[in-house]
Amino acid sequence: MKVTIKVKHLILSTAVFLLLIAGSLVALSRQSPPSQNTDQAVGSSLSKQEVFKRIRESEDEQKWTYIRNYLIGREGAELTNSYDIYVGPGTSEWSSVTDEGQGQLPPITLKEKFPYLEAYVESGPADFHLAGAALLLSYYYEGAGQWKKTIELLERTEERLPASQMYAAQKLKIRMAEVAGNHGDMDLFRQISADLSRELKQNPDTRIVEKFSWLQTRYLGGNESIQQYLKALKKWEGSPVDGSGKQPTLILEQPTLLKQGLQKLADSRSDRLPEVSGTLKRSDGSPIAYAGVYLRTKDSVQGSLQSDEPYQTMTNGKGEYTIKGVLPGSYQLYLGLELDQISGWTWPAESDEWVRVGLQDVTRNAVLQPLLELDFPVNQTTVREDRITFAWEPVPRAAYYDVYLGVQIHSGSFSQPVMTKVDTTRTTIKTEELYHLLSGISSYSDQDGKMVTDPLSLLGFSNPENRFFWTVNAYDKDGHLLTRSDGYRVGNDKIGNLPFFYLKERELTLADRTLLAGNLDQAMKQYEQAYKDDPADTHSLHMLIVMIDAQISEHRSNGSDSFDRENAEKQQETYLKEMVQLHPTSGYLSRLTDYYYKKKDWQAYNVYFKLYEKVAAGDSWDVDLSTHAMAMMRQGKLKDAEALLVQSMEDDPSHRRVGQYLSLILYRECSFKTARQLAGSYPDLASNESNDWGRMVESMEEESASNADYDKAIHKYLGWYLQDQQELLDAWLRKRDPSYLALRAFTQALQNSE
Amino acid sequence: MRKTEQLLIKRTLEQELSEIRFTQAAEVLRATHPRNWRDRVRAFLNKELELPLVPLGTASLFFLAALFVYHLVEQPKTHPGGPQQHLRELIEEGGSYYWKDEYERKVNRHEGDHQS
Q1: What is the pLDDT of residue A322?
Q2: What are phi and psi of A492, to 5 degrees?
Q3: 3 state SS of A506
Q4: SS3 content of chain B, % helix, strand, coil (to 5)
Q5: How many residue contacts between A and B have a Cβ separation below 8 Å?
Q6: Where are the alpha helices (DSSP H) in A272-375?
């Protein structure tokens, strides 16, 4: 079959055909992006290069969508959600490397994001994300010293935003004022402030109003505004929360400690707030660029970082940061880092490390140290001997090491310090000592959702079938943490030796097997029988002590009526006393002293404390001096108690029971001046309440001015407290005597902080 | 046919065609004997080709199929979906944080060492 066709018709039809193909291809590729988005929703992921390629190759709307999804994130860009990991003293939290519902995003560093954020800010759609991108960029420019450019960027972005994005626009304005304040351009600061207050009068948004008033106090310190603010604060605090309509909620949301800082500032009449600055780097000198830096007060460190953290900034390319306008108080430094920045390294900050800000500038550097490497036993080795030797790589400048041992349990793992103050890089311990360790009881929910005691946590290291792990902390001669073995080990070159080992020296007894099978009552009977048959069977005796702990904790959570707690504790006391005859360890002795402390059986307490002190010294174990001081106080040995508290204030950076220390001083000599000074040197960082003891002492001092017999009252009421005259004290506290409000508040705080 | 008849027809024809003048001689000459490039192109465009339908149809079918297959192969390269090699999970084991795949590989290498 043939067809006759003119050349021109052939050309024409070929052209039409090609056009059709090209058109359908374009249509196909236009269609595919939405299908990719659905891919992401079911958890697909892209490599970094693929993300950038996608952004580069797409145009307009699609490009902005990609930047939004991959680089800004759903909740908008914030300094508090842009990092993989947030580390604080003694804590570490990894944020959504996986963004739920969005599929997994590859770790992309902020530095790599900046050019795209810049593009978004210049020509992206004027939405909420635009403001976020501009905010992130503002920290980048500010860190580079380009603060004029920062202001321009924020201004430009704010102008681009439509009226519907008022919240975002106001956030930008607040940031603009902050940048202006940081660089001392107070005219600009006032101008923006005036703008903002006009806007806020029309449309008050609590979040913005709070941020705004906060900002004003930070940068107009010493000015009348702060005094006014404090006056208003006092008034609002006095008035009931609802009702008055003057936004009392906003003020109440201010963390107590910040309020205390404000008060201190107002008292000092200083007109400049100090700054906290420093450098973030690794021990090899390389800077940690574009990391998040946050200062957090004690009442906020318990939770995760919030987007409205009062003090947040970003390090510049050289790892330097500055936070200006910091109110007096104690803060913890937190860092926001990318996985690659921390992997293989650790920030050796301990939970009791505080940045104390007075009226002077403070420098606080953070230096990441390489993780310590473990040598033996590692990679799931099995130990079958009755001794186990731990060995690790030496750390330069280390004076001693603490070795922690951990047990895997159903709901994760727990670990405890086992060998402390080891001054070599190798130490040996009898496996028997591990079997006698006391640790917490944990439970997990079974298939039916019922909470059951975890036998793995009861058996601890006595279980030859379980896998154990260990970690090491290195300290310098002053007791400062240098580095540790546990941390982020991401990437094959960082993974090191796995810290796991098996301990198969002993064999499970019949009772152990019953316990592991989950039959706790039966196991208890078998342990009792075994101990009866062999009074030297310390394993069964240990298990009996532990099992009673389990019963008590189970009773606490389930509240079964048939359980006689007092009787169980008595039985445990007997077992503990028998145990310290057979095998005295600081663990058992500490439990016994605790028991007698709670029972106020001072005779027995003193006997066992002496023993405990001796054994603990042999183990290089730190005894809690402040608790012992309390025991002395309760026995009327006030001199001993004071000496112990003096020592404890020096040793314990959290200054636990500083209130009790002050009460002793006031009781003895009624010197407000001494008490005030001591309260200033030892801020209370231990109790959950935000106790400002210095302030309380000052209030009492003011109260005493109009009260002739105040020193007698102090002697009387604090005497009741110190001598544990609980009933008299409670009756007085209930009376609400108006002439001793401050003294009563102080006594109440003492009771609450025990 | 007789001569007179022929003549008659001729005359009639001439009479009927007397109104018609042949003026496109140049045009026709250009088409039959193109001199400049424009004429040549036009001549080429108007050339008639005889194409065999079967081989041509098969070839274009092959071409379309190839295009489709190429598109299929190319698509995952730029837009990956389905099982991913980049999907990584961070896990906490023994106090440290690892990529799950790296951790499992290392554990598997040492698994069995402890089995007695």
Answers
A1: 94
A2: -60, -30
A3: coil
A4: 60, 10, 30
A5: 135
A6: 339-342
**Taking a contact as any Cβ pair under 8 Å apart, which residues of chain A between 487 and 546 contact chain B?**
487-492, 495, 498-500, 502, 504
Task: Say how many CA atoms lie within 13 Å of A13 toward its Cβ.
Answer: 6
Coil, strand or helix at A32: helix
Tell me if A295 sits within 8 A of A311, measured CB to CB.
Answer: yes
Q: What is the mean pLDDT of residues B17-28?
A: 79
Residue A725 at interface with chain B, using a CB cutoff of 8 Å: no
List the one residue out of A90, A138, A85 whose CA is nearest residue A109.
Answer: A85
Instruction: Give residue A240's pLDDT.
Output: 41
* Among chain A residues, CA nearest to B103: A495
Structure-block tokens of residue A309: 């953290």
Question: Do A87 and A332 contact (CB within 8 A), yes or no?
Answer: no
Instruction: Report how far apart, in Å, the C-alpha atoms of A490 and of each of A88, A657, B92 are.
Output: 19, 41, 11
- Which residues does B contribute to its contact with A (CB < 8 Å)? 44-54, 67, 71, 75, 78-82, 84, 86-90, 92-99, 102-103, 106-107, 110-111, 113-114, 116
Give A283-289 contacts, CB < 8 A, sequence gap 24+.
A283/A367, A283/A368, A283/A369, A283/A370, A287/A315, A287/A317, A287/A318, A287/A319, A287/A320, A288/A315, A288/A319, A288/A335, A288/A337, A288/A341, A288/A366, A288/A368, A289/A111, A289/A315, A289/A316, A289/A317, A289/A318, A289/A319
Are residues A7 and B45, on separate chains, in Cβ contact within 8 Å? yes
B49:A32 CB<8 A? no
- Exposed e or buried b per residue across A293-326, where buried means at least 16 C-beta atoms within 10 angstroms of its C-beta: bbbbbbebbeeebeeebbbbbbbbeebbbbbbbb
Structure confidence at residue A268 (pLDDT):
67
Would you call A741 an interface residue with chain B, using a CB distance cutoff of 8 Å?
no
Token digits of residue A228: 């006014």
Interatomic CA distance for residues A747 and A732, integer angstroms: 10
As a whole number, mean pLDDT of residues B48-55 equals 81
Three-state SS string over A449-491 comes to CCEEECHHHHHHHHCCCCEEEEEEEEECCCCCEEEECCCECCC
Kindly state whether residue B15 falls inside one of the protein's structural domains.
yes
Residue at B68 is within a domain = no
A314 close to A292: Cβ distance less than 8 angstroms:
yes
CB hemisphere CA count around A426 (13 angstroms): 5
Is residue A185 packed enough to be buried (19+ CB in 10 Å), middle (13-18) or exposed (0-12)? middle
Q: Which residue of A has its CA nearest to B52?
A: A2
Domains: count for chain B: 1
Range of the domain at B20: 3-45
Report the residue of chain B nearest A492, measured CA to CA: B102
Which residues in chain A come in under a pLDDT of 70?
28-45, 74-75, 95-105, 220-261, 265-266, 268-271, 559-561, 688-689
What is the pLDDT, as a whole number, of residue A34?
40
Selected for mutation to probe chain A from B93, B100, B102, B113 (highest A CB count within 10 Å) is B93
Distance CA B85, CA B76 (A): 13
Number of helices and strands in chain A (H, E): 29, 25
Angle (CA) A316 A148 A323, round 5°: 45
Select the residue from A37, A495, A507 to test the B interface by mutation, using most B Cβ atoms within 10 A. Answer: A495
Please name the residue of chain A whose CA is at the shortest distance from the CA of residue B71: A25
Q: Looking at the domain assignment, is residue B112 inside a domain?
A: no
Report yes or no: A312 and A182 within 8 Å, Cβ to Cβ: no
Place of tokens 């290195």: A474
The per-residue pLDDT for B75 is 53
Is residue B20 included in any domain, yes or no? Answer: yes
All domains of chain A in start order, with CATH: 1-42 (no CATH), 48-245 (1.25.40), 276-370 (2.60.40.1120), 374-503 (2.60.40), 625-752 (no CATH)
